[in-house]
Specification:
Shape: globular
Number of strands: 26
Radius of gyration: 20 Å
Strand content: over 45%
Number of helices: 0
Structural class: mainly beta
Oligomer: single chain
Order of helices and strands: EEEEEEEEEEEEEEEEEEEEEEEEEE
């Protein structure tokens, strides 16, 4: 089992210094956490009064440049760099609930509004590119959606229990994949879709993660239940459960866990995102950044 301990972390810390990111909106606060050894953590605290008590949701994504993206309860989108510094914020002109976020390609960030059945695309500056009304392509209720590597849209249609691979330029070429024979005859709770390394991963909180190829052909089911988020790093799938980070190699099928330092309050963590050199611990009111060694 691989452990992440306090001895792996940098001990340097900026003391008694606040860095203004956007005046009156966000502050980056560097905190010193007491433990048997010095543990450096970078914390953003959006529940501070100067931030108008902005609170994060569990909708999170990461791009290939190691930036992370989070939404708040007012459905604004916030972009942070690998050090936890706020880069940009997107406040949509029309309020809608962002239920899915895909930012792996930072030049074309996808926001899925399930209440409006719309997809919005943003550029790397979080400026709007275009908006798509899924009702123009799908007859039914789309529960979740994401972008494919060939620039098409994957969507799960809850009304007819099917996957769609939507070709926006040639809608007549849209593929429909019925899932009746794939899922067990029981209740389901579809949370997200993600295409990674030429496979599509569909997360059902109740029965696990279903794997398809990039044409929608069913491959297998990974029996990881109770999840609301799945992340990917190199050849591994990871998730947060039972106060541990679980990692699963997509090719060797080996599993391992990472234990966080004892000084970290794991009871407040909602989501975990693993970057190239750091781990982002996301709670309702803050982000902690731990160096990964």
């Amino acid at each position: 089992m691989r452990y992440l301990t306090a001895s792996n972390l940098h001990s340097n810390i900026l003391k008694n210094k606040r860095i203004s990111v956007i005046p009156g909106v966000f502050w980056i606060i560097i905190l010193l956490m007491a433990s048997s050894t010095c543990l450096a953590q970078t914390s953003l605290n959006p529940s501070d009064p100067v931030t108008n008590k902005v609170l994060f949701t569990e909708v999170v994504s990461q791009d290939r440049l190691n930036n992370i993206y989070l939404t708040d309860r007012q459905n604004n989108l916030h972009k942070y760099d690998g050090a936890g510094k706020l880069i940009a914020t997107f406040s949509p002109p029309v309020t809608g609930r962002i239920s899915m976020l895909e930012a792996w390609n930072p030049a074309k960030i996808l926001l899925f509004y399930d209440d409006q059945q719309k997809i919005a695309f943003l550029d790397r500056f979080l400026a709007p590119i275009s908006t798509i009304n899924l009702r123009d392509y799908v007859d039914g209720l789309v529960k979740t959606a994401t972008i494919s590597q060939d620039n098409k849209i994957w969507a799960f249609n809850e009304s007819n229990f099917s996957l769609y691979k939507i070709d926006l330029q040639f809608p007549e070429a849209t593929r429909t994949i019925p899932l009746d024979l794939v899922f067990p005859k029981q209740a389901y709770d579809i949370r997200s879709l993600r295409e990674y390394q030429n496979n599509l991963y569909l997360l059902d909180k109740l029965s696990g993660i279903y794997v398809f190829d990039n044409l929608g052909n069913y491959q297998k089911r990974l029996p990881f239940t109770g999840l609301s988020y799945m992340g990917f790093r190199n050849d591994e799938l990871y998730y947060w459960q039972n106060n541990k980070i679980h990692l699963f190699n997509l090719y060797t099928l080996q599993e391992k866990t990472l234990d966080l330092p004892a000084s970290v309050d794991t009871t407040t963590i909602k989501q975990v995102v693993i970057g190239e050199e750091q781990i982002f611990l996301i709670s309702t009111s803050e982000i902690k950044v731990l160096p990964l060694k």
